[in-house]
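I keep forgetting this: the sequence line spells out the residues, with the fold written below as integer tokens. I include a record here:
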Amino acid sequence: MRRKLARQSLVALAVLVVSLMVAGLGLAGRQAYAAEDADASSTTITFKAGEGGAVGPEEDLVQTFSAHDKGEVAAVTATPADGYVFVDWTRDGEEVSTEATFAPVKETATYVANFKAVDTSSSGSASTDDTDLGLNPDHLTGPEEGDGTIDESVYPEVDFGSSPSPSRLLSMRLMALPTADSGHPTQPGEVKLSKTATAVDGMVNTWDVTVRVEGKDTTKTSDIVLVIDRSGSMDDNGRMKAAKEAAKQFVSTLLPDEHTRIAIVSFARGVTIDQGLTNDSSALNRAINRIYADGGTFTQAGIKQAETLLANSNADVKNIVLLSDGEPTYSYDIKNPTNYLTNLVYGYVDNGYVGGWTGWHYDTNTSVPSTEFNYPKAVGEGNSLQTFGEWYRRNRWYYNHGNSTIAEATIAKNAGYTMWTVAVNAGDTGKSVLSQCATDHNHAKSTEKPEELKKIFTEIAGNIKAAVQDASVTDPMGTGFTIPAGSVDSITTSQGTATYDADKKTINWEVGTLSNTIDDDPTVKYAKLTYRVTIDDSILTATPEADGKSYKTNGTTTINYKDATGADKTGEFVSPTVDPVLLVVQKKLYDKNGNEVTNSDQEFSVNVKGDAKSGEAYDQTYTLKPGDRKVLTNLRWEDTYTATETGYPDGKSKDDYTTEVKVGDDVTNSFTVHQGADDKDIVVTNREHPTLTLSKTVTGDLADKTKEFTFNVTVKRGDQTVIDNKTYTLKDGDSKTIAPDSGALLPGDQVTITEANGDGYTATYKVGDASEQTGSEARFSLSGDTKVSFTNSKPLVPITGLDGNEGIPILPAVLGVGAITAVLCVAITRRHGVRGE
């Protein structure tokens, strides 16, 4: 009976519970419907203040709008209390604004203003503490212990995008090898090299050479930890504000990208992971906004925390970007510090609150390995670079926090991480520490202007994904080419620095990491070098290309660089070829006999002069001996030139020669030069004038030596008649020079001399040293100084048959005739005389 009653009681209780639940659901439903009805009819916006501040005005903290209300949401301002600063406005824990005065969109929500406590002893400008507290860069009011705690359990918050297939990875590696090509790279990681030589307008033998490197950003996965100094000194000179703006610019440059993640780490006396590795730009920007300056400088802890984040990363490329404004004031304890001391040095020691002094001491050095650091135990009081350790060999030794920071950076670099450092207003010691932390000098940036941080961070962001990093180019000039002294200062680069070694005729270009983007594709970056070259005399010994006239402007030009993964790469540029215009001046001399003279000390001068249309005068005189051939490399301007012979051997003048100037195959002394034209081959030929002399001799007892004899002279030179039947008159003993009315005789001229009126005389002639010939016409080819002698003879002729062998002897006969003649003459005379009587 009792069991039955118990069962009935349980059933009744169950029915009651179910009834209550149904009633509750009905009530909840009615309430939900009521709320929906209310939402449909009005909008309520509520503003609240978190700890450390207030919001106002009071009347605007709750704003309600009906469905038909067109009014705007009134702005509300968050005001921090003393010792606090405003952080941000959040809605449901998500940041919506970092501006203190805020007017949200019109929708039902509650917004909370958040504040953060700060050290009120810090000021907005740097101050120098002249007390025993030392420099105290972070404006601490007293000693503060460092906190070296590292969180090693933080892993990337998101995965990378889809991974490339093995075949795709192979393709990417092949594309990473540099190729010489004029087109832009199209594949991630691809590098292209090009080199061109462009003729300079209006000039010859002068080219502008452009060396260009292009690389397309890699798609390899990349994790970057941005490590930001938030020590008290970062509030000075607007550094923290500029750093935060630069950090956000850094994020926006790299993201969104499925292959890139960024983490934010900040440090003061301790270190904080403000945001783990993510590709969420909003989360990163919120983390950056929440960073505020306060405390000492534990730079080593910031690097150590970044290492642990990257140790948990599976990225192909890992970078640490460290920003700081000065010297570290904390470091990690060292297990055996006296094993890692510098040599004994003499100098000033700033021992913080203990006070500074000058003397002999030791510092811990930069070679401490990770196994010797006593993580997470911190050393230092937050206000100086050095902290006293102990006595060693009668001298003090100090922890040098800067050296320990450098040692930690070395540990990171040895782990394969690329270290970038940015020093802002860091002072000489701070800059030195940070530059030694960097992977190399190309990864160490420095500025005295906080407003330049955004530019620096943008540059670093671009470099991290660049296909070409830490590049250097060695560019030797080719044989026969040089950079004129006046053009060395005109060597230009789009980035990096270039120097010219005139002795080696080589440019060394420290390119760095490609940073300039092309217009068509911002993921393709480039760098270019431009300089001007001309030819010099060494081109005369250079070996031309296969066409026999073109030459390479450069020797083997190489580039050495690291790709996006840090692997060393080497590439080679293809040198352009050009066709120079050479000026050749050649001297030929033919003597009076028509023989070419090739071995003589006689000197001639040839002047080559330009019209100076370009405004640049070319006026050069060259001295040549017979047979000389000078090849000249000094033509520089497109112009019209004239070649003139201006000087002759001693005792000679232009009248002693027939001179011919030929340019190529043309008989001319004028020529035009332009780039691309053939070489200009000038041949100046001198033919020495021979003399031709005509002499007359008359002989014989019966000859009339007063008689004038007439000669007709004709001289031909090929088809040309030099002297056309010219008349010369000579009598016995006369000598005359034969010459044309204009010009001169030349060796090889064909001479004809004819005596016109030698009747009754026997004529003979002799040409030079040749044998005497009978006749009245001499024909010969002129060779050398030539004398033509004509002899006319009229002797007493004997009577035929009156000789000693036939008839009467000649002498007696002659005497007899003479006697008879005499008698007759006497008789006749007398007879005339008688008649006259």
In short: The longest strand covers residues 524-535. The first helix runs from residue 2 to 41. Residues 483 and 700 are 84 Å apart (CA to CA).
